[in-house]
Design a protein that fits this description.
heterodimer, A: mainly alpha, 13 helices, globular, B: alpha+beta, Sulfite Oxidase, Chain A, domain 2, nine-stranded mixed beta sheet, five-stranded mixed beta sheet, 14 strands, disordered N terminus
Chain lengths: 218, 313
Amino acid sequence: MLMSQSLKSPFAKPIIFVACLVPMAVLIWQAFVGDLGANPVETITRDTGDWVLRFLMITLAITPIRVWAGNTAIGRFRRMLGLYCFFYAFCHFLIWFVADHSLDLGDMIEDIIDRPYITFGFSAFILLIPLAITSNNAMVRKLGKTWKKLHKLVYAILILGIMHYLWLTKADYLEPGLYAFIAVILLLQRLPGRKKKSVKSRTLADVPLSTKAKFSSS
Amino acid sequence: MIKVRKPWEISESKVTPEEIYQQRRLFMKAGGTLGTVMLLSPWSNASASLVIGDYQRNVITLDEEITKEADATSYNNFYEFGTGKGDPVKKSQKFDTSDWKITVGGECGKPGEYALEDLIDSSAIEERIYRLRCVEAWSMVIPWLGVPLASILKKLEPNSKARYVAFKTLHDPRQMPGQNRSVLQWPYREGLRIDEAMHPLTLMSVGMYGKTMPNQNGAPIRLVVPWKYGFKSIKSIVSIDFTEEQPSTSWNMSSSREYGFYSNVNPEVNHPRWSQKKERRIGEFFKQDTLMFNGYGEEVASLYDDMDLRVNF
């Protein structure tokens, strides 16, 4: 399989790493040339928010794709994609905190309490933090089975993220509806009944460390 | 760049009974200089029936920086042309506003179908610089061209039963592609209480930035009610109705919990989506405080003396 082979190439990871930075590079370029529109803060907030959900869904699609396509090589990109989700979430949070709340904590907290969509979005961001912190090999090793349990939080994050988008929408539900639809598929696919069939559905924590080394060198 | 803006200083005298004199004293800074501007806007419609030639400049002004014309004409909420902010300018360029008619009905002495020039005396057009505060917590400062709505309504002779004025936007999905999707119930509807409609600040606008009204901003004729959230200022008006009952309004029909009939700019009334305490002036990075009645409290607060604005938001 050509696809499978190119994914195993030593260049695959650096290429994907750089590709994931493209949305940020585009924003920075647009800011530089003054092409962010009449409301640049809104453009940055919307764009980074879109990419949080996209990276979250791509990350969650890795395991099903690996199982259905029988492509094991793809699994090694999952952590990086998940970390990019966190990266864009951090940028999304930062522009909101700085530009919308002028770095005023009290003001920010009031907003979190008063507006459900912010409550959802902020909770999702907070829950992403422990996942990002425990994403390195050392933490995976140290936490063992707890790691797997902890990282189930990603499903709560997905639901909160979708609710955040749905709740902030005024009238046009087309786009958030599309995201919600994909999220539902990703969640249904993981229902307990289905999981028995997916023999190869293993998380990073399941992989013995010896094979993990082989994984990254192959 | 952060610019510290002076709040609009208003003189202390509150004794003058004639509201209109007060307005003039506050606003007429340039004393009504007559300005003539060549109407060569890229949006001007050659076949438009109403020609704006001379107009009274600076009849109402603000000591605040005017929003860039390019921003005010490219960042719009006009769902008839799509829900994205950039949709209206892209999708409204072929919008045909020639031979525009407004149907007048309800509790008045002069119902019927009117052309723009029947309703607007082009020699009476004045320029007024108003703040525009969107419910989405952004704002602009726009130089509008138009006439007081009151001058139009008086011609139509509302009777004693006319307690409200209802407006409708054109419903024409072939020209307005956004109407092919039911994001709102079409046609777009808005309304004012008759005293709000007759208030001297309420403007029926046919242009901005010295030019005829761009399609994306509500050509050929739109309302401007500066102390209310932007969605009250209905665009591309084809119908005016005088009613006894409070008319239904589009956003209120969409979500009555969020959008009240009055929708006066009010930093104290919380909205589930946006904090209304602050707003981002387009062109600025940080937010600034939102003013009660968008800064027009001295002129309009008396309209709501006996009302709880938290209930009637």
